[in-house]
Each structure stands twice: as C-alpha cells, then as structure tokens.
Amino acid sequence: MIKKCLFPAAGYGTRFLPATKSMPKEMMPVVNKPLIEYGVEEAIQAGIDGMCIVTGRGKHSIMDHFDMNYELEHQIKGTNKEELLVDIRKIIDTANFTYIRQREMKGLGHAILTGRELVGDEPFAVVLADDLCVNKDQGVLAQMVALYKQFRCSIVAVQEVPEDETHKYGIVQGEMIKDGLYRVDDMVEKPEQGTAPSNLAIIGRYILTPDIFELIEQTEPGKGGEIQITDALLKQAKSGCVLAYKFKGKRFDCGSVEGYIEATNFCFENLYLKDKVTAELGKQTTQKES
Ligand code: G1P
C-alpha cells in the first residue's frame, strides 16, 4: 500500500565538518554501514521497494553506493570478503532507486516538494536518515505503515523529549485516541524555549498523503525562513486528520556528534557483534553437517 519512501538528502551536514566537506552526511558510517542504508533497510522491512532520494551537489557517492561495483565484486570474488556485500546486494536486488536534485536548500518542506515527481500521486513515507531508529522486532516505519492501513491519513513519529530540548524539534499537541496515538490539533516547528505546547517531538519518520504537496505549495517560509513540513502538516491537521505516533524502539540523533557516537556504540554491541556471532554459529553448523 505504501510503496515509496522519500529520503531528503541534499543537506550539507555542517555539524560534522570537516568530515562532511566532500562526503555526504548520509554516507557517514555507523560501524560498517552508511547511515542512509539503515533507513533503506527500515523501509524495505516496511514493505516499501521504491526509494526516492532527493540529492544535491556532491552527493554522487549515494548513487554509487546503491549500485553494482563490478570491479570491486570481481576483485573479492571467491574470498571471505564477499559476505560483507551480502546485505547491500540484497538491497540492490530488492529496491528500486530514483533520484532528483534539489537545487536550493529551502527547508524540509521544500525538499519533500522536490520529491513530488518521484513519488507521484500516492501516499508515501519519509525518512530523515540522520535519525537512526532501531527496534528488535518491527521497525518504526513498519509500525507506521500498519497504522496507515487502519487510519489512512498522515502520521508523524514522535517521542517525548526533556523540556529544555523542545526547541530543537517540531512539537505536536493532540488528543490521545489510543495508547501512544494522538490526533494532532497543534504543531509548532522548533518553538522558543518555554513556549512548547507539549514535550512530544517529531522525529524523522513520516507517512504523508499526497495532498500534502499542494499544502506545501501554499506554505509560506516559517522558522529560519525555510518552508517547513511541520507548517504544511498543521494545515492538513486542521482540514483533515494527522496522527502522531509514539513509536516503539530507540532513536539516535545522528545529526549530532553525541548521538552519532551513541548510535555507533549501540549498533556495534547490539547489531554488528550479534550478526557476527550468528554468522559464526551458522558456519560451524554447516561444517558439522557436511
Ligand atoms: C526536522 C523537522 C523537525 C523534526 C526533526 C526531526 O528538523 O523540521 O520538525 O523534529 O527534523 O529530526 P531538522 O532536524 O532537520 O532541523
């Protein structure tokens, strides 16, 4: 039902300079995988196979990453290095990647509007790759797609944040309609300290119905002089319905150095090492069997 996922990936990643001077921030590795690959995996797990990437200048390596590299594959063929490419090969075989370039940085709303050509007239997901989300069973997007099937309206993922951090996020306020699910009646992009309507912060996962494009077109520049998706969503909430969903799982703000290091430590211990142990056990079982 949700077949496409939009990845706004044109930003500069200035908080990571100089690392991001010539490398896209989406390609920063968390352990051995670039950030954007985690997002793509999450989308695939949610049943999505169309990855629509909004890129900008200097972002070629994202395209190269989600493509074959025949020379490299030839070099490592038959060696134990081959298994390091198993996951990315699966992604390339499963998903279809399309790209469009955003010429000017005019905010998240503008980035999403730029992706309209790739998405078309259907509901779609949005992943901000620098919010890395992990959950043991069902990923955050899969949880949201399941909700979309039930409610058929735009959904934003939210988490509670301390009061002194509300100014960093889009903040929503709404009436709880069931455990962890709110019907939004107000939302503000990065409210000034002490003015937030709640402590429910939007994190980088959205399901949007296609009427959002028209609403973005009608949205004037807001916070920071940028066209904010939060403002367009507020219009949608007022005229129809937007839900806010307190997702199950952990989210790391990989747009900040602290969050990135936390994510790295977490993924090393909980994903990378565990995968290694499983692979090792698998090998031993196969050896025993043969
Ligand atoms: C964007 C959104 C904001 C949201 C945040 C989540 O802000 O505009 O509403 O809370 O992502 O990461 P950014 O962090 O890109 O400034």
Automatic annotation (TrEMBL):
What is the organism lineage in this UniProt record? Bacteria, Pseudomonadati, Pseudomonadota, Gammaproteobacteria, Vibrionales
Nucleotidyl transferase domain: residues covered: 9-267
Q: What does this protein do?
A: May play a role in stationary phase survival.
* Secretion signal span: none
* Family matches, as InterPro entries: GalU_uridylyltTrfase_bac/arc, NTP_transferase_dom, Nucleotide-diphossugar_trans
Q: Which family does it belong to?
A: Belongs to the UDPGP type 2 family.
List its EC numbers.
2.7.7.9
Q: What catalytic activity is recorded? A: alpha-D-glucose 1-phosphate + UTP + H(+) = UDP-alpha-D-glucose + diphosphate
Q: Which SUPFAM superfamilies match?
A: Nucleotide-diphospho-sugar transferases
Q: Which Gene3D superfamilies has this protein been placed in?
A: Spore Coat Polysaccharide Biosynthesis Protein SpsA, Chain A (3.90.550.10)
What is the protein's name according to its record?
UTP--glucose-1-phosphate uridylyltransferase
Molecular function terms from GO: UTP:glucose-1-phosphate uridylyltransferase activity
Q: State the UniProt keywords alphabetically.
A: Nucleotidyltransferase, Transferase
